[in-house]
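Q: Structure tokens for this one, please.
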Amino acid sequence: MPVKSNTQIIYKEMPQGYPDASRTFEIRKGTIIIEDVVLKTDEILVRTIYAAVDPYLRCFMRDPSIESKIIPAMLNGDVMYGCTISEVIKSNNTEYTVGDLVESFSNWEEYSIISPGTFQATTLKKMKNARKSPYPISYHLGFFGYPGFAAYLGLHKVGEPLTSGQTLFVSNAAGAIGQLVGQYGKILGLRVVGSAGDDEKVNYLLKDLGFDAAFNYKKHEDFDAILKKTCPDGIDIYFDNVGGKMLDAAINNCNDHARIPLCGMISQYNRPSEMEPIHNMFIVLGKKIRLEGFVVNEEAERYGEEFGETFTKYLIEGKLKYQEHIFNGIETLPEAFAGLFHGKNFGKVVVKIADL
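A: Here is the predicted structure, written as tokens:
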């Protein structure tokens, strides 16, 4: 019987600051004989095709004594996990047949058994007609996945009213979420301003995505000044992906009744014991600014269908584009993840683990 590789990415130790590809993770080589795998009732064996690499996974890498109802802590020695697309290759579950493509929040390994009652099983979803789609299957981890939904949800749940001519500022605007927030904002008639971490990304925002203004935040120590320059009429909506000093400066430049969807805090994920404070909360009171966080998992029933219909329509019409940064091979997962926090990615980071 053929022996197949089953490499795993092991979470080795909690990072002290930024994750490091070799210190935080271990690449553990292994093998599997598919014919010898015996599945219990309702279990399936899947072959991982793509794995998403997302900044929020850093929040799992913390002291296990720090509890969270949303994000459980990783334990040293666990197989790392995240959003994946996989193919069912063996099934003892009547809902799934061999050849089905599925999405789930599952292990970073070439082959996985998904058992009933586990977190992986609760996130398991069959991908209908994915093989027939004219778009890359990896889009289901980005454009059609959590990043796309976060862009749509943040603007509609928190950003409304989306009044034509108002100013939308997006941080991390060339990332998995920000690129869609800005493009969708333009479709809605907003004036869109974005920040990114290098000149190539800034040029992409301006020339390819049609942003009205953009700047390289690494070239501007005074965020307040550059926001006054690029948002001369003030900020009406700030889609926050970074937190910290940029959030502080954006609040300072907000108009009355501004809205701030709080989507991510990537500037703070590696500072668990010394988060940067917000210094100007009095402005929030005086200008009647709305700040609100949101979690995509909790809003799928209300917004999921309209998100899918809307973004699919604009993708077909060519009004929305999507930039992916694809790594090849499961061994690249640690490098891809560590690079997120140093601006090495350009767009949504996905690791291709196997061919279909």
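A few notes: The first strand starts at residue 4 and ends at 5. Residues 187 and 263 are 20 Å apart (CA to CA).
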